[in-house]
What we know:
The chain is an alpha/beta fold. The protein has nine helices and seven strands.
Amino acid sequence: xxxxxxxxxxxxxxxxxxxxxxxxxxxxxxxxxxxxxxxxxxxxxxxxxxxxxxxxxxxxxxxxxxxxxxxxxxxxxxxxxxxxxxxxxxxxxxxxxxxxxxxxxxxxxxxxxxxxxxxxxxxxxxxxxxxxxxxxxxxxxxxxxxxxxxxxxxxxxxxxxxxxxxxxxxxxxxxxxxxxxxxxxxxxxxxxxxxxxxxxxxxxxxxxxxxxxxxxxxxxxxxxxxxxxxxxxxxxxxxxxxxxxxxx
Length: 248
């Protein structure tokens, strides 16, 4: 089941989202998500672990038909206040998604993998319900910011005490273990200190910089390749002249 945000955590998270520094980082993260996922307007997407609804709004701005799923009723209340009836919201868990196979064009786990009990099962479910692409956004284990968050959690209780951090390589290994050799692309953002000027901000948009695996936020997009189960068939052949002499 993983960590489910309670009332106080949901309120604190909403307040954190509204901070200028957080808004700047989210713009970079949402831009990375959009560039990697490349969604087509009018298509459907499931936001797994939609939380307070920041990504729901971003997906709506991309012209998508949006469905959100989260185990916390308090987080869903915050999301509902943010986006109203523009998206369908459901209570549920990433490891047991209440939708059928190929129900959505896309699926997204945006800082969701950190808080689930079974990351492999969560990704298996995301790959099951999506038919085109899946975006996985996560806090980078090897970023300086990620190390700071873990150290801070030793001395002060934070939400990140409940989080499990991943690296790009670890998430790619999980994906390969589930899907085999499927197309995967990745990049990272938030490499540099926020609000450091226009030049630094433009560097954050550079694909060369984003290929550095140590940004605070990493994004991976998985292109789902159809797979078919095959069953060997017995081929029967009856000779036309089984008892006759061979002719040349």
